[in-house]
UniProtKB/TrEMBL annotation:
CDD domains: PolY_Pol_IV_kappa (cd03586). Monomer. The keyword Nucleotidyltransferase applies. Its cofactor is Mg(2+). It catalyses: DNA(n) + a 2'-deoxyribonucleoside 5'-triphosphate = DNA(n+1) + diphosphate. Its main location: cytoplasm. Residues 46-226 form the UmuC domain. This is DNA polymerase IV. Binds 2 magnesium ions per subunit. It comes from Aquamicrobium zhengzhouense. One of its GO terms (molecular function) is DNA-directed DNA polymerase activity. Mg(2+) binds at D50, D143.
Amino acid sequence: MSDTAILPKYGFCRDCLTRQSSAARRCSSCGSPRLVSHPELERLSIAHIDCDAFFAAVEKRDRPELRDKPVIIGGGKRGVVSTACYIARIRGVRSAMPMFKALEACPDSIVIKPDMEKYSEAGRQVRSLMQSLTPLVEPVSIDEAFLDLSGTESLHRKAPALVLAEFAKQVEREIGITVSVGLSYCKFLAKIASDMQKPRGFSIIGQGEAREFLADKPVTLIWGVGTASAAALEREGVRTIRQLQTMEREDLIRRFGTLGNRLFYLARGEDDRKVQPEHETKSVSAETTFDNDLTALEDLVPVLRALSETVSTRLKKAEIAGRTIVLKLKSADFRIRTRNRQLPDATRLADKIFATGLELLRKEADGTSFRLLGIGVSDLVDDARADPPDLVDHGARKRAMAELAMDALREKFGGKAVETGYTFGRSVRGKPQDPAD
């Protein structure tokens, strides 16, 4: 590491980036208490970056009058919370919470419907800044990613920790939102660290402290341990990571299969997963939760058609297609049904997605009341191999040409410029549109 990359023993200030020359509680230059110091600060290079309350932060950025108000991003009364700002979280609102419960917890919340196009643009801006730091950026979602800054010291002339602090300041300055940074020697602990001091956090877990840091934590902190796995561990009397640290690998594998192998290594802070800059898209889908439960096929069909068109648009923009159509339904009692069918050839056309989904839906429309409907496409391939001429359905080519013509009109005049008879006068929420729409 070059001399310019070396950090002093006492770290640096996250606000003014001044390197500290003594152990103090505040920055020697600007007086800020936001100091970063750690014995392994120079050696750590695996980071997890997570945008703070991302959707809500973007809305507050664009609407300053909301800055000090509780904000929830989500659907109507029948929907769920996508994101809540930290003011709402303090009052008990959580992501994925049913909206009615969120409003009970924080009745003065301002509820905003998601604007995914705006959030995606902000996410792309953050991602672009990440990629200016290192080519090894592994996106986890629209608002978080792993970064590997190993070997970048000669490029930036700074240690990774200082580069990440500068990055966090740049995001605030240029994009108007905040991020939390977790820095460690592996992905598992970097992810844990990024959650430790939100919002605007910068937390570090070094290799020398990892095992003891993990010991008193619940087993649910381990990546991959969900509700079912936690229940299985509870039945065996295993509640803390310390207990896992005393168990033999063979014993854990015998009791819990492949999960046991993962438990053995992660409980000891051992994670050899690499930061992978590219992930292949596995599926493209769209779904909606209804304002009121729907039962009749004739009420579900317009929703299915609208969602099929949404999926088709996403596939066309990404220049991909898929062979398997997946229908998703959630009943009024929250039971989920998924049905799928594989096509002879990959498709990106709304016509084929809808037609296949409709066949599956007809079998499920048995009088059950549904609160959610979704449609998706998987087994993805390049769209150059999609939708070959259909020798059986002679009308397929005409419908495909009509669909592409509709796409062109929508691109020029907007999404509602032209509609099929399935969706005209109906909304994706499954009820007649207001005349004003």
